[in-house]
Design a protein that fits this description.
Strand order of the largest sheet: 2-3-4-1-5
CATH topology of the largest domain: Zinc Finger, Delta Prime, domain 3
Largest sheet: 5 strands, parallel
Shape: elongated
Number of helices: 15
CATH architecture of the largest domain: Up-down Bundle
Distance between the termini: 63 Å
Number of domains: 3
Helix content: 55-70%
CATH class of the largest domain: Mainly Alpha
Structural class: alpha/beta
Low-confidence stretches: none
Strand content: 5-15%
Order of helices and strands: EHHEHEHEHEHEHHEHHHHHHH
Length: 337
């Protein structure tokens, strides 16, 4: 194994799930009581203001004793300042033989320790369904759980953006089925509720004029319990206010729209196309509907308690479903012009 490994990502759960696997691989069956030293950059048990780095360095420069190698783990390394990180970077440039440093960074890959590591394990997962399915397969394989490609795709579809659940799911399945070949029907009972999906799944369905799909996506977003009705309305407000800024502007290309909105050219181009298709009157109508929905969710309307089937708040569910259906039909009417 390489002398230094950095596990990096923006989701703490995924970083530490991957860290667990990397440390197991680094130990390779060695007794952790003898071979492992584990530190946290901001250790709550340490005296106030005392840095953990001297103890980490002592572990790194101490030769392995009674075992073939020593594994030193440093968690939450993103909390280290430049001065604290400097001696660790120096060690990574000239590592002690038979010693492996495993660093966990919850944050960006621009961190100095990430750049200096001999090996980087990036736990970020793309938003495309194929990338999520590949992540499911890779994670399952790391636990020797056998799942066919079609089933992995179905698991990825249910999990959605909530990919942090996949590691725990794989561990559960491994403890129950071992390495036996599995199909989706074996996995389904342990999946739980459908996870969240990207915001553009909702805006794309609305912009395409597909009311049924827009309602389905909105329900899934609410059902994941990661977004409230007000958050969905705020998401759509940003989308349509961008469209409103472009409607009647001098922007005619996605690059010009991106400059005006201070955003990436691809979503700016989609907003520009929608502004051109809807026109001023429909854009104004959409903004008015959004304002009505915002007011309704802030106490303006009440439709009772919770939906018996989905356990969602009935007011949130009704207001959001009506809103996305109206916006989708507005887009559909513009397409028929």
């Amino acid at each position: 194994m390489t002398s230094s490994v950095c596990v990096v990502g923006t989701d703490a759960t995924m970083v530490y799930d991957a860290l667990h696997r990397v440390v197991e691989e680094a130990l390779g069956g060695l007794d952790p009581a003898v071979a492992l030293e584990d530190f946290t950059a901001r250790d709550a048990t340490a005296p106030s203001g005392e840095s953990v780095v001297p103890a980490v360095l002592e572990a790194l420069y101490t030769p392995a004793f009674l075992v073939e190698r020593r594994v030193v783990v440093l968690r939450d390394a993103q909390a280290l300042g430049a001065t604290e990180a400097a001696p660790l970077l120096e060690w990574m440039g000239a590592p002690t033989p038979a010693t492996v440093l495993v660093v966990a960074v919850v944050g960006a890959k621009s961190n100095r320790l990430v750049k200096a590591a001999a090996e980087v394990v990036d736990v970020a997962v793309g938003s495309r369904s194929s990338e999520r399915a590949a992540f499911v397969r890779t994670t399952f394989e790391s636990y020797r759980v056998s799942l066919d490609a079609a089933s992995a795709q179905e698991v990825a579809a249910v999990v959605g953006d909530d990919v942090a659940r996949v590691d725990a799911l794989a561990r559960t399945l491994q403890s129950i089925y071992g390495s036996a070949p599995l199909r989706f029907e074996h996995v389904a009972p342990y999946l739980g509720d459908a996870g969240d999906v990207p915001a553009w799944d909702l805006t794309d369905a609305i912009d395409a004029g597909d009311a049924a799909l827009a309602i389905e996506v909105a329900r899934r977003m609410l059902g994941s319990h990661r977004r409230s009705g007000l958050q969905l309305v705020a998401l759509l407000e940003r989308h349509y206010l961008n469209v409103a800024r472009l409607e009647g502007s001098e922007a005619t290309t996605k690059e010009a729209a991106a400059a005006l909105l201070s955003m990436n050219p691809f979503p700016a181009g989609k907003a520009l196309a929608l502004a051109s298709r809807l026109g001023a009157k429909r854009v104004a109508t959409a903004v008015a509907w959004l304002a009505e929905a915002d007011l309704a969710l802030k106490g303006g309307e009440s439709y009772g308690g919770r939906d018996l089937e989905s356990d969602l708040d009935l007011t949130e569910l009704t207001v959001v479903e009506v809103l996305v259906a109206r916006l989708a039909r507005l887009s559909a009417s513009a397409r028929r012009r």
